[in-house]
Predict the 3D structure of the following.
Amino acid sequence: MPETVDVAVVGGGVIGLSVARELRLAGAGRVVVLEREASVGQGSSSRANGGVRAQFTTRANIEFSAFSIAELERLDAATGLLGFHQTGYLLLCGTEAGRDGLAEAFRLQRSLGVDARWLTPAEALELVPFLRPDGLLAATFHARDGFLDPHGVVAALRAEADRLAVEVATGTEVTAVEPAPGGGLDLRAGDRRMRAGVVVNAAGPAAGRFAALAGSELPVAPVRRNLAYVREPGGPGELIPMCVDLDTGVLIRREASGGFVVAWSDPQDPSSWDTTVDPRFLEQLAQRVGNRFPLLEDLPLDPRQCWAGLYPETPDHHAVIGRDPLVPALVHCAGFGGHGVMHAPAAGRAVAELVTLGGCRTFDLHPLRPARFAEGDLIVETAVL
Ligand SMILES: Cc1cc2nc3c(=O)[nH]c(=O)nc-3n(C[C@H](O)[C@H](O)[C@H](O)COP(=O)(O)OP(=O)(O)OC[C@H]3O[C@@H](n4cnc5c(N)ncnc54)[C@H](O)[C@@H]3O)c2cc1C
């Protein structure tokens, strides 16, 4: 006979750990996290930049951020593990179309209680004196945004999961999923056989593959994203907001220990499992970084200090949360793109309510439902970084 569990969470990244923790807090019975790697948090979660922002363009993402920022603040205060620097995010643009988009997003954020501010170019320069202000038309800033250590988030969630008696089984890959008699799903997990009332798909970039293993379909695909670390001479400067040049898509932040982390994503990048740094990345960055951050043009970009990882992407840049239309015992919680670390608390709460209450009360999950792809009813996030 297989061992029985109430909920099996497949994937021990930030999302799976957050889901498991919230399930136990909501009173779910036996909860097991099944992670194929030798330890948790080794997938996309280990490659993230750690950015946290409420400055999105859709209600779903803004509400997830508002909830998550409060929880990340609490977790950091309680554990001291997150290294959460609330430097704010500064969004900058120099085109009229960009300004109109920023204004619309700003109004939506304010209407949802996010205390974003509209800045003049002079105010933006006060925050980041080395900014190139030429042609700057608009800037917004939200002081509770910032950045944190993704490994710290994994460590804090893991510690809470342990405290709440979640079983975390590492080195345990789920290789088969079948319907169980009377509902639920039977899993082959490493050398274990398991019967679960509910299975949560938190397999990150592999969530599409996992859905296929369970006999369904989910359009979550891996897309490679690159980051560079740029040394600066003279030791650590003052922290600055996470700066986003919306005209080029370049994003920079200063590390607390000095130097800058710089990112740029090519929207044309195809899906790929490759996690080596894209050889074109440094050149693409060099062409764009001077638009707002000329200081960085003069600093050495060292290819040995770049890294890459996978965004778990969906066609509309929103996560997928909800029961699978074909396999109702399967709940998806995946496809977080470049927002998975910052949205992990909200994702966990959403799934816990779905499973233990039969529906989510804290968030409207309708826009995130798995069926939206087949129905052609997508919501598109344009603030994709
Ligand atoms: C370069 C880069 C920068 C980023 N920057 C940010 C940022 O600034 N802010 C932000 O919020 N997010 C950022 N992200 C995105 C973020 O990292 C992801 O959205 C998030 O980590 C997704 O978490 P996850 O738990 O879904 O996936 P993962 O961390 O990949 O976890 C999924 C886990 O599932 C396991 N798994 C898969 N299949 C199976 C199976 N069959 N059986 C058992 N285990 C399985 C994997 O081993 C993995 O550990 C960035 C990502 C990258 C690559």
